[in-house]
Amino acid sequence: MDFTAQQIASFVNGKIIGDESTSVNYISKIEEGKQGTLSFLANPKYQSFLSTTEASIVLISKEFVPPTPVNPTLIVVNDAHESFTSLLKVYEKAKSTKSGIEQPAFISESSKIGDNHYIGAFVYISDNVEIGENAQINPNSFIGKNVSIGNDVIIGPGVKIYDDCKIGNQCVINAGSVIGCDGFGFIPKENGYDKIPQLGNVVLEDNVEIGANCTIDRASMGSTIIKKGTKLDNLIQIAHNVELGEHNVIASQTGIAGSTKIGNWNMIGGQAGFAGHLIIGNKNKFQAQSGIANNIKDEGSYYGSPALEASNFRRSYIYFKNLSDMASKIHKLEKQIQELKSTNV
Questions:
Q1: Which residues contact 80 (CB under 8 A, 6 or more apart)?
Q2: Residue 240 falls in the annotated catalytic set
Q3: Model's pTM, two decimal places?
Q4: Which residue out of 240, 247, 277, 331 is catalytically annotated?
Q5: Most CB within 10 Å of its CB: which of 69, 223, 314, 334?
Q6: Where are the domains positioned within the chain?
Q7: What is the pLDDT of residues 154-199, one digit of tens each?
């Protein structure tokens, strides 16, 4: 689908410098721009590419003044990055979406599906499922019994949602993720381990996004809960009875053990690990590969494993990197002490 500079400027309330009839049908990085594409310039370190890019239209922030005339049509906005993101959303909505029910697919007669839906091939929808309007359920997905799914939800290919789980409005669950599988609960016995029945469910509140190939375990009792606005990257493990607060962002390969409760607006780097039964506060930052074994209060920054508060870690790191030299000095001092002792004997 083609968009003219005039149309784009109207979407983002921008000012056009150049030909308002210039049209684009795709997007590109400014350094890789091709004719017919839209790009943006928000970071001054990329400004040299403005004179070399072949992109047809470039969004620029109003504080940036091109030093020389340039070939692309420019659209001047308050914040180029924010405006570009808004346009991506417009473009995404403008793309044709599928509708209807592909075959073969199985939908229980006791289930209810709202208007404007798409059900892909080989989807299985079990008994007593309720699905809201504008659902996009892609091929090979499984929806268990008594599941409820809100409006405007996108479920990627191969997603599995087990019995009794609840998915809010405007949620996205990407390909291969499993929602509501059994939690890892066993009792050690003399001859092995007895499985503890996992009878709870998973609740995703509104505007939650789950990346590809994540696993979110159902609670043993009650619910594993991910609250509104939280975003999970790919390959994340959320154990049973975990509660994630609102608007957390969690990077790939993080693992959160059972019954840990995490507050709101935390930022968690990749491969971080949280022990079970912890209480984590709000607005904390955890560096990649942090290992968290203790409760954490609000608004801290943490590094390392076991994780240390950031300022403490940086002070300690001065010593970490010099351990070899320090050891050498200690050995020399020990030798000198021994020589002094032998002299005084």
A1: 40, 41, 42, 59, 60, 61, 64
A2: yes
A3: 0.83
A4: 240
A5: 223
A6: 3-94, 101-312, 313-344
A7: 999 999 999 999 999 999 999 999 999 999 999 999 999 999 999 9
